[in-house]
Amino acid sequence: MTDKEWPLYEVFIRSRAGLSHRHAGSVHAPDDQMALDHARDTYTRRTEGVSIWVVRSDRIVASDPAENAAFFEPAKDKIYRHPTFYEIPDGVENL
Amino acid sequence: MYTQGLDQAGKDQEAGAETPEHLEAFQKRIDAEEKIEAKDWMPEAYRRTLVRQISQHAHSEIIGMQPEGNWLTRAPSLKRKVILLAKVQDEAGHGLYLYSAAETLGVSRGQMVADLLSGKAKYSSIFNYPTLTWADIGAIGWLVDGAAIMNQIPLCRCSYGPYARAMVRVCKEESFHQRQGFDIMVSLCRGTAEQKAMAQDALNRWWWPSLMMFGPNDANSKHSAQSMAWKIKRFSNDELRQKFVDATVPQADFLGITMPDDALVFDKDSGHYSFGEIDWQEFMDVVAGNGPCNRQRLEKRNKAHNDGAWVREAAQAYAEKQAACAAA
Fold first, then answer.
1. Which among A8, A30, A58 has the least Cβ separation from residue B319?
2. Does B96 contact A1 at a Cβ distance shorter than 8 Å?
3. What is the pTM of this model?
4. Which residue of B has its CA nearest to A33?
5. Alpha helices in B156-293 (DSSP H)
6. What string of pLDDT tens digits covers the 95 residues of chain A?
7. Cα–Cα 20 to 30 A to A33, which of B153, B258, B307, B319?
């Protein structure tokens, strides 16, 4: 195959107003506009979206799963950040 | 889906050994029903199995457009034509979802397409049978998509996240495919004697190949046990085939047509239909490339790819020109 491989774009779709965009999949496209068009044709053939974001995959900065333990560790011992940490005395309401 | 980053991870991983501790930890995650995501550590054999399965699945969707595309210009009404167009477009979409899932495992789209075009890659045996009459379009939707749904619903719970998510999307759409096929069969079976005979003829030709879609018997299925342990597969080939037969025979009864199998009988004790022996020689021949339409399917795929080259080149040239203008 002599074709040059087009860049990969990740596709994010907002299914309706009020919800956030959610990752749907990816498409290859030669440029941004065609990435949007391809994303529409591939992922919203049944009105699954009211808004689409596409972003080149190589522009995404991602955390490394192999480093998960160290990376997310700082939050693990801070259970006082959750409301369930606190004991509510009997008889106290609306808290 | 993060393909470039994944390439790198793959190389690092090859340098590191697959220690028994690694493998055991991986199996523990699987056993705990945790999903494996693209950049997670995984055994090379798990990655290879998924690349093979997902890319074959994608190729099947792409080649699967041909038997039905054959009737697009001759659909019996405008309504049937727009429905069939939508279905064929869905098949292309399914192929694209699946290629995109396979790419997360570090294989490039270009490589997968090249393997399909060269004949190196396999796709489902069913698409190597011809669509001789309009009734075949009904039979494909009803039987082939029905069998595909049986196979694909458990894949929505596959241990590999990107594949499972793609299958959720696919399954939602397959349901429309199966119903539109059955709808065609209902119309034919309620029509003239000649139309009903067409429906019976299509069933006669598609029934056995549909049963073959589930693959070899469990005893002869070389990848099954490991795929089950990895929770890529949830049910064995024979279990799924039995489910399909049990679900489909009553539908044929409703239509008033009969499966081409003298041995087919309902077994009250087991609550299942027992059925005749599949012609495994035919299955092996089709898989080996000698089915009725194997060569034609590949030729047509190659022609479509080559005929579309100028479109890809034009899009590329336009993108480069726009980028150059923007930079200037």
1. A30
2. no
3. 0.91
4. B319
5. 161-189, 193-212, 224-229, 237-255, 280-285
6. 446 789 999 999 999 999 999 999 999 999 999 999 999 999 999 999 999 999 999 999 999 988 988 999 888 889 999 999 999 999 999 88
7. B307
